[in-house]
Amino acid sequence: MSNLHPAGPLPAPKTQRGERTRQKILDAAEREIGARGFSDASIATITAEAAVAQGTFYLYFRSKEEVLRELVLRMGRRLRHHLTLATAGAGDRMQAERLGIRAFLQFVRDNPNLYRVVAESQFVDPAIHRAYYEEFAAGYRVGLEEAESRGEIAPGHAEVRAWALMGVTDMVGRRYAIYDRDGPLDAAAEAAYDFVAHGIGPRAAGRGAKT
Amino acid sequence: MSNLHPAGPLPAPKTQRGERTRQKILDAAEREIGARGFSDASIATITAEAAVAQGTFYLYFRSKEEVLRELVLRMGRRLRHHLTLATAGAGDRMQAERLGIRAFLQFVRDNPNLYRVVAESQFVDPAIHRAYYEEFAAGYRVGLEEAESRGEIAPGHAEVRAWALMGVTDMVGRRYAIYDRDGPLDAAAEAAYDFVAHGIGPRAAGRGAKT
Lengths: 211, 211
Prior knowledge:
2 copies of one chain form a homodimer.
Chain A: H1 16-36, H2 43-50, H3 54-60, H4 64-86, H5 93-110, H6 112-121, H7 126-149, H8 158-179, H9 186-198
Helix pairs in contact in A: 1-2, 1-4, 1-6, 4-5, 4-6, 4-7, 5-8, 5-9, 7-8, 8-9
GO molecular function (chains A, B): DNA-binding transcription factor activity; transcription cis-regulatory region binding
Domain HTH tetR-type (chains A, B): 19-79
Region (Disordered) (chains A, B): 1-21
């Protein structure tokens, strides 16, 4: 386990061909680390899977740790992009939450290796793992504050809510998209949305139970 | 990483002295694995910390993996015991949730090593990690179903809610009890309870916002 950050990633490849090679190495590393775990995954297997010479690895990455860090960033970028697309048509924040929860479960189902790599990164590089969650939470918090100011959600503690919401999707995702690889996701997503929208407390008479 | 379960744990020590030695080894392993991580933690350091001969380790445990499994079980037992005590005086389910959230945050703050050991176990023995969460969820689900039948919570999907509730405390715990080692916990616990009780959706006019 290393807490040390090296001088930063190597410079980005100058050619399209170089960038393609770098992505091939990352794809192979995602499969290999996701399937076998960080400590069992070897650079030799990653380069063999990527069909490049072992020395080529070091043109793009200093170490296996640096590949892991890049995969965590990749997960963040892809997930944000996926959620942005999925919630683009939402008319308000609650509708965005509903669409976002469903889209998150699908993303985890479709990217179990990335999910695992992010989880394992906390034991390889705690700082990058923490940054992953803190960046997500920061964006979430801003969105919640804006929604509150527009009256789209009830007033509340945006920071706690941001982490709570990440916890809901993280754990429901674990249960329904990782442990259960094949079951339908719609009912779980809808129930998770109901939880997020209304909580579990008894509801006042006459209040619409579901939106 | 090993998915193989050995024949099961060694038989429990027959004497009180033996049981004390076994617990000393587990205490040292909790500190050592919690601080340095599973792969860097060594049996030599664990036995030195426990002030027992290295060979003594093998009277009680077959391997470092077996110690990790026992620590996950220890975390489950201690957390359940802690939550049972903390919620014993609750008059209904929502009050139990409120007390339970506060108690969980305190437990994580007081036991960062156990929290880390459980998280890391998913990469050492995925089955024990999954069992840890599934057992908690099963107990949670039963409690929610009973509370629903008594009218103490709104009707809903008990299985999804169980995992969502674990996610809330897990992630709020990470933010306020692990990343933030010293800050006050009461406000975060209260905000998490508000989230669990009411969600974030806009609240109908005339409905009490907080219980």
